[in-house]
Fold this protein.
Amino acid sequence: MSIKCVDVRKNHHKTRWLVPWGPNKCEKIRDIEEAIPREIEANDIVFSVHIPLPSMEMSPWFQFMLFIMQLDIAFKLNNQIRENAEVSMDVSLGYRDDMFSEWTEMAHERVPRKLKCTFTSPKTLEHEGRYYECDVLPFMEIGSVAHKYYLLNIRLPVNEKKKINVGIGEIKDIRLVGIHQNGGFTKVWFAMKTFLTPSIFIIMVWYWRRITMMSRPPVLLEKVIFALGISMTFINIPVEWFSIGFDWTWMLLFGDIRQGIFYAMLLSFWIIFCGEHMMDQHERNHIAGYWKQVGPIAVGSFCLFIFDMCERGVQLTNPFYSIWTTDVGTELAVSFFDIFEVSFLSPYLSGLHDNFLCFSRYSLDELSQGFTLGDTVECHQHRCEELCALLAHVLGKFVLSFTVHLQMAFIIVAGICLCLYFLFLCFMVFQVFRNISGKQSSLPAMSKVRRLHYEGLIFRFKFLMLITLACAAMTVIFFIVSQVTEGHWKWGGVTVQVNSAFFTGIYGMWNLYVFALMFLYAPSHKNYGEDQSNGDLGVHNGEELQLTTTITHVDGPTEIYKLTRKEAQE
């Protein structure tokens, strides 16, 4: 709750700070009614907020500060809230590191916010004094907590000629709700990053060293796994330690960029990982073959990067800025809906439709031999893409029209996109399993030792694919839950503990998954004789691509990769 201070100086010199409590506390009034008999004008009232509460102090371990505002507005017949009313605040933010030094100005801005209020009772004389029900307003976000004490002075200047703060009702009080990261969680988070960074870096160096020892160039899957390891290492590097000693307000933006790069790489990897294990010989090992799936991920990630720069990039100089409170921001949000509809939803919807349509044209006998994306079947792709684009457009407009807050609309659309992506990924894994099942028919012709080896290999590969699906499902759930949690207030320690455990658990799962991929897909340097290998198989040259040697030599690709018909193109 803010304290209403009275600034009785002429010209309202802004270099003097009004403190709500302490030895130099300001002259206060209890409510607005007290100002009328004392002839105190609205321009003389300053809403003062000290952060934190008395006998407490802020800490760099809090990492960031986020504040939302709640206005208490009373109904008056002669001072009602007009349609599309906008409150204009003159806000000054200061800081100091002890209780006796002078306040230093950190930011001073004019902060406009649109009011969205409803009055549930009849607008009559007997209901005067009742409060409007107003939506909370985004107020301030700072990417670091480098000082112990902060002070906010909020003025509501009135200028009837310029229509400033006219028709906004009678504001009784201003409430601020502060949100910051728990210091204990920050220490656990830093410790995890410090431990996991060398682990992933060492396995990544070991993995790439084994690949470079081969005479052939790396295949596409090996390159993508290495790129995934780089993105995981990038997000692991504990640069947050420097935020404890330095006032780095850009850490939130930097964290968003790192997480966005990893998300884009992880989503692209899953598509390529499944596709490389089921495509035909002439289509595999080419990134261009995945442009319909990877392209939307790249476009969507770039759009989110631009959007984040428009929000948190501006907040580096103006912590009170919020793109959601401006007309330009609203138009930009609608534009992003259109981009998401065209670039993300349509390709995956059409891809699912095409694959299921082609899939339905195969008999069970043909499916038992392995169904691949490389099979050429006319599926009326262009008509399907037009239909799915129209469906995505209608879906986006429906969400935009019936969602009260644009933030929640973005969460809904992003959740729909990720769910469609997950369904597409599940279908690709199903196709991979079909391919593997077709190859298992060659196992009885092998010797017992080799047959048992390949059965174990197939079992481990299927288990890895199921782990991939589980990791993808948890990532989708984590994204939706984290966005919903960020967009809503969470009261009580239980919610915070659950979210923290879930967050650290997903982060550990990502690291373990990337570690396992690089360990299992590193080329083996054991050498089995080719004559013995082909003799055990008892198959003709045409099937030698499907099942070759048990363990690859230095010039061959990984064993799982060869098992699924993925040798490198020389």
